[in-house]
Amino acid sequence: MTGITRKTSGCGREMANLSSEWCALGSSDMQLVDYASLCRTIQPGELLFCEGDPCEGVYFIKSGLIGVRKEDAEGNSTLLRLAYPGDTLGYRPLLARESYRASAEVLKPGWVCFLAASTMWQLMARNPQLGTRFLQRAARSLGECQERFHETVTLSVRARFAHLLDSLKEHCALPEQNDGSPLVLELPLSRCDLACMLGVRRESLSRIIRDLERDGVAHFSGRYVRIDSDARLLEEFVTK
Amino acid sequence: MTGITRKTSGCGREMANLSSEWCALGSSDMQLVDYASLCRTIQPGELLFCEGDPCEGVYFIKSGLIGVRKEDAEGNSTLLRLAYPGDTLGYRPLLARESYRASAEVLKPGWVCFLAASTMWQLMARNPQLGTRFLQRAARSLGECQERFHETVTLSVRARFAHLLDSLKEHCALPEQNDGSPLVLELPLSRCDLACMLGVRRESLSRIIRDLERDGVAHFSGRYVRIDSDARLLEEFVTK
DNA sequence: CGCCAGGTTGATTTCGCTCAAGCAATGTGG
DNA sequence: CCACATTGCTTGAGCGAAATCAACCTGGCG
Question: The whole model's pTM is what?
Fold first, then answer.
């Protein structure tokens, strides 16, 4: 276990503020969370947990960025999704009573809060609201996952990349200038990991990026993307 | 609303016996289900619900077979999954408080039992166990969906088809002869729908089938499949 | 009989993968 | 300071898998 661990007061309150699941906590629940949670720093490259490991509890992300990966025998890695501050990792295997089906790798430094499985069950038993919130979260995630599956078998890589860029707007957009200048994103991922998210080779992504620049849709420079024509970006995944 | 509708006694008990969610029902819960559920026949081609419709309740499948489909603007249809007796359809949008994100089409005739959303909430309020069961179901389905996503971007169509055949064994195998003769499946789907499940064109599936026959893995005749070499079928999705 | 739906096959094209080389930015050791 | 690896990314050439387009079975069914 790396990183600095500390007991914080106010962990429960922070979680309630940051997420739509933990806001169901009552004040006595928060006391339990404050008492039972382990809060620590995380550093890029560190693994929170590994595919196949038994699930010991959940990780609440206070800050930083986590990548959820899955690998197969031949080393083909897929980046299933990104987890941002306010997200809770590991609730799925906990509630399904399964082992982890993916690994969680830290991409940007920050703080996470660990809650043991036993604490989770205790909280859910005394506050059924919490279960309901996670039920809703699971149901929504399932819908998104099915949507994404449908998308991958239906759309071209280019369309899927356009969609990915669009969904990154929410978390990665630089503060807007009010001078009408175009939107700029700071991508939290290397080209390689971007390709992983789409399930393609990095060379293929390079070519897609070249084409998008040629067509004046967006401009890429390092980890910065300038969206030149938001309208055309959206068109990408309407038309095929 | 087509089909024959009837009030049945014993609907609740039947559901408890057939599924791992509804077995949480207590006897007074079952009475409520018996009283509030609408049971009716379903015929092939009929739609239980449509993508985009608001969710009014859940459908419990007593018998028959349902296909869950998703279509996009260009008419590309994907068969997301099959629903068998014992499955509950529509719980996801209900619990996520969303509209349906897919359509449900009857593939084989049978009986379904409809439970209105209000009844569902009532049941879950008086018996938290039921919510927990659905939470577990949602969590497991989410895991399977992520697994499937990973598979589609990682494996070849041939490997995915092999996997599909393998998973159909559970529901579609003809009764085994104890004379060592090979396993035979009766596919519940047309070639076209099989292709949909893999997200490929039917022509491509035709060719894959030809190759599997050539390689002596399985033999296809109409909707019957004889698995000649189960071992080799399993190899298909280990090796690439 | 003609007609149609579902399925197969062949020819061609397109898309993304593989392999190989090149390039820019960064680090490292003499 | 320069020679040199190393890392992350891009580009090109060739290949293979699946899509597309078109023709052609095959078995009902009026």
Answer: 0.92
